[in-house]
Amino acid sequence: MTTSVSATFKIWRGDASGGAFVEYQTQLSEGMVVLDAVHQIQAESAPDLACRWNCKAGKCGSCSAEVNGVPRLMCMTRMNDLPVDQPVTIQPLHTFPMIRDLVTDVSWNYRQKLRVKKFSPRAPDRPDGTYTMYQRDIERVQEFRKCIECFLCQDVCHVLRDHEKHDEFIGPRLLIYTASLEMHPLDGEDRLQALKDEHGIGYCNITKCCTKVCPEEIRITDNGIIPLKERVVDEFYDPLKIVLRALGVKKQKTAK
Amino acid sequence: MVDVPVKRLRFGQTQRRDAWWVTPAISFLILGSFVVYATWAAFQGDHYFVGNYLSPFYSPELWGGSPHALFGTKPSFIPEWVPFSPALLILWAPGGFRFTCYYYRGNYYKSMWADPPACAVGEPRKHYLGEKVFPLIIQNLHRYFLYFAVFFLFFLAHDAWKSFWFNDSFGVGVGSLIITANVILLGGYTFSCHSMRHLVGGFLDRFSAKPARSSCYDCVSSLNRHHHLWAWCSLFCVAGCDVYIRLLSKGVICDWRIF
Q1: Least enclosed by CB within 10 Å: which of A186, B78, B87, B143?
Q2: What are the residue boundaries of the structural domains of chain B, listed by start?
């Protein structure tokens, strides 16, 4: 990319009462990401353009937006990956209430997090109250700990985005958070009933949009949501297991 | 209560610039064609075997008119007016396995039901029940179709073995290779299943306490990473295998014997 390339951006400007796309032009330089362009537009022509950002390294999860209709981190979206022969659209996350311009109120996610049962340690391995934890046991959960809470997965999930199930479904991010607790080798809490009834795991229809947009490349669906669905099946839908439990056969332990 | 107002999009409304409709359209065509062809082939009840080759749509053949039938010809307890084909007796199992497969579910919800049509694209309907209630709650029985699929693999492997024996002498025909590739791909698809992954060890929180299960879980997980590829390749192969045997049986083509 040469320094002489100019690009047009259509950026959503407005607040909770409404808004519209406004066009801006700016020069692109080598190595630029979308967030650089937004900052340049702020400096050149729109000093009142609201945009949330922090680390500029894809680790804080602040600069989430929809670039050309796809939920992405603006700081990790390179301009030379986007076609600039037509305007680049930047709009705020669709699933959350607008505050202003590119800034949305994502506090709903933090309120949902409070609804997930907290970590509760299982019985210690030894009488002195200590545990032994192997890397083999913890590595599955470590993948989920990579989450930076950018909420792109929540934004793209159609159950929230299109069907407004915010009061019945906690969304992929919080299912991953639940998985990180439920599969933890030291945790002793049971969250399956809540997953089925309160957190609405049955609403997920596995379209994998959450996995596709995750900037940390967490395999949200394959490694988090589907294993949780299978655990819910074990507990509530597997007729053989239900009959065996009714006959007094002990529940297969998940080694909790 | 909901405290997040959603600005509902119209069907197909999106700011996406890419050809988002191409993938669901291709999936729609392939899955739709497969369902139509498999249904047609299952109702034919004819041209499903030739010599030592048996179409996977008809395997295991419980009752039927071929030498591959396990229990002889059509049983008398099936009334004359009921359409009979050996495939109709067994095809519900592999069909159910694919229908309830986690990968295919995500795929056909998008391509066949537009729920959603593609990621970040507006949907055609407001109402949504997901897999919480009937009918889609039955998707939770996927593991039972998995049990049948594993059982069927033994028969398909036996068919593959038989495909190398021509009048009691060993040989390799193109059909032998197709039937063998079919069982390998179906095996890969079955053993990469998400339910299989859970049942062999995924339910555990402490793998170190169960080393054998842990190894099985690792094996299935490595296959599971490419479950979508196994799904598509096995779909093409099983249909291709039936087409090949059908054309052989009708005399349209000849089986090329490699040796």
Answers
A1: B78
A2: 22-249
